[in-house]
């Protein structure tokens, strides 16, 4: 009977631990990146009988809790530095002591020094360099975008073959310092002596930048004259090579006095200020500027464990390595690693219906174990009463 009481007590202790696990799961229902735990139960047996008789069970033992790594749902937050992982992997962090930590709760922000940190404990979010080395993710060098000189100006439209002269204005280009200049292209027909040929003058105000010729054959610019090269030296600026490109969508057909030839695009731009920072699906930091340009920064590092024993739960959504050589480092979208979803957080993967179902089972088990203890106690009392008589 004393053995029965011991067996019943193991049940009470095990079901009590199970209740604690369920309570922890349900109270973390809204914790970003939280992974539910399941308590493992195993039978306790004796050491065996010397005579070879069957060994009676000694009760139940509640072993360590097992983490459920199922994907949680996503909750949009609108914060560009809230990041969620779609698939396997964890974000890599480095705390103030230089220890590497991992998390699924991508609640990040930029620190005062421009370094990306975890909002929970201010540990630094790690990125991976091209050589595989880990380093902090910083916006240093990304706050401004320098201008770039125009190299090519493209034109489109029809140059009427029946006019004597055509001027294309508002040809905007940028110099090496990012300053904008408005040039002008003057086309003068060389007909009738040279039908289909035009003298082309590039002007900066009243100053002549350069002169060339463009020729049309059956209304199309000839390959040899469809791209014209000039050297443009803006006042007080550095000389730069400039190409006028008429090779696509430019024609010369009779259309009276109406010509539609105009500049369609150019590849230069002025300096710009930072307007937005965000991560793309590959976990790379992308900066957007007022000049319409974008630049890419560091790429988030991700960690992945190969066995459950490689993980140690530190609480607060943080994990550490429990065994050497059991982890792999990579980046989003690379060979089995998760993709990154910006502006969202992964919610807890706790399934309330399953938790409540397990709660009922634990409650019944606890009641049954307590009944065993109570019954064994009653039998002992009866035994002591018989002895007294």
Automatic annotation (TrEMBL):
<feature type="domain" description="Flagellar basal-body/hook protein C-terminal">
    <location>
        <begin position="342"/>
        <end position="383"/>
    </location>
</feature>
<dbReference type="GO" id="GO:0071978">
    <property type="term" value="P:bacterial-type flagellum-dependent swarming motility"/>
</dbReference>
<dbReference type="InterPro" id="IPR037925">
    <property type="entry name" value="FlgE/F/G-like"/>
</dbReference>
<dbReference type="Pfam" id="PF06429">
    <property type="entry name" value="Flg_bbr_C"/>
</dbReference>
<dbReference type="GO" id="GO:0009425">
    <property type="term" value="C:bacterial-type flagellum basal body"/>
</dbReference>
<keyword id="KW-0966">Cell projection</keyword>
<dbReference type="InterPro" id="IPR020013">
    <property type="entry name" value="Flagellar_FlgE/F/G"/>
</dbReference>
<dbReference type="InterPro" id="IPR010930">
    <property type="entry name" value="Flg_bb/hook_C_dom"/>
</dbReference>
<dbReference type="GO" id="GO:0005829">
    <property type="term" value="C:cytosol"/>
</dbReference>
<dbReference type="Pfam" id="PF22692">
    <property type="entry name" value="LlgE_F_G_D1"/>
</dbReference>
<dbReference type="Pfam" id="PF00460">
    <property type="entry name" value="Flg_bb_rod"/>
</dbReference>
<comment type="function">
    <text>A flexible structure which links the flagellar filament to the drive apparatus in the basal body.</text>
</comment>
<dbReference type="InterPro" id="IPR001444">
    <property type="entry name" value="Flag_bb_rod_N"/>
</dbReference>
<keyword id="KW-0969">Cilium</keyword>
<protein>
    <recommendedName>
        <fullName>Flagellar hook protein FlgE</fullName>
    </recommendedName>
</protein>
<keyword id="KW-0282">Flagellum</keyword>
<dbReference type="InterPro" id="IPR037058">
    <property type="entry name" value="Falgellar_hook_FlgE_sf"/>
</dbReference>
<feature type="domain" description="Flagellar basal body rod protein N-terminal">
    <location>
        <begin position="6"/>
        <end position="35"/>
    </location>
</feature>
<dbReference type="InterPro" id="IPR053967">
    <property type="entry name" value="LlgE_F_G-like_D1"/>
</dbReference>
<dbReference type="GO" id="GO:0009424">
    <property type="term" value="C:bacterial-type flagellum hook"/>
</dbReference>
<keyword id="KW-0975">Bacterial flagellum</keyword>
<feature type="domain" description="Flagellar hook protein FlgE/F/G-like D1">
    <location>
        <begin position="84"/>
        <end position="119"/>
    </location>
</feature>
<comment type="similarity">
    <text>Belongs to the flagella basal body rod proteins family.</text>
</comment>
